Amino acid sequence: MNLSDETQARIDLTAALRSASRMNLGEGICNHFSLALPGKPGHFLINPWGFHWSEVTPADLVVVDAQGRKVSGKHGVEPTAFFIHSAIHRGNPHAACVMHTHMPYATALTAVQGGRIEWSSQTSLKFRNRVAYDDNYQGLALDDAEGERMCQAMGDADVLFLGNHGIIVCGPTVSATFDDLYYLERTCMQQVLAMSTGKPLRLVPDDIAEKTARQMTGESQQAALHLDALKRLLDRDEPGWSKLD
Asked: To bridge 157 with a disulfide, which of 29, 72, 115, 132 should be the other Cys (CB 3.0-4.6 Å)?
């Protein structure tokens, strides 16, 4: 069956939300994923307020415009989502997809003084030269100024660590962005566990780190296959997850 671009976008974003829930990457009903709506410049899909990620279907997703205003959908959108996502989509040209979470291990790094990804695991090297940090926590993102401040802090990075808060990951597709989200949490988990031993981290030498980072660029096929595999798990375990009405 050939699906419309919008239908495929809705299914892909729902698969990411449901899979993130299965991996314990969300927090209550508070975090949000958004995606540029194909064929409708300046319009974006986003998960509805009040829904756990594990219950969202493609039909539940809401359409908002570049100013964060609701255009269509049966449900509302969480207030901070308007300001965070609209600012990133407007200000970051390659941010077709934006994922904001308070996932446990990445957020743990935002809660310690000087928390940074250390180049101590192979997984971490996927993010070398791709990460920015915002250490200036300003409370809830409830106005345009806070969203714009986050966007400026992110610059042209793919990942932003929000001090005392969580993370934002952006990318050109759902599959690429979710793949980064998954491996970012794995990176932070490995680092936090290693740090918990009390022994010094074994850092990868800079020349090897740079070489490995280059080897990991352009993994779009792997990311697409990753999302396809997650959809098969959802088909197996959560019948009805992809319903369109």
From this structure: 132
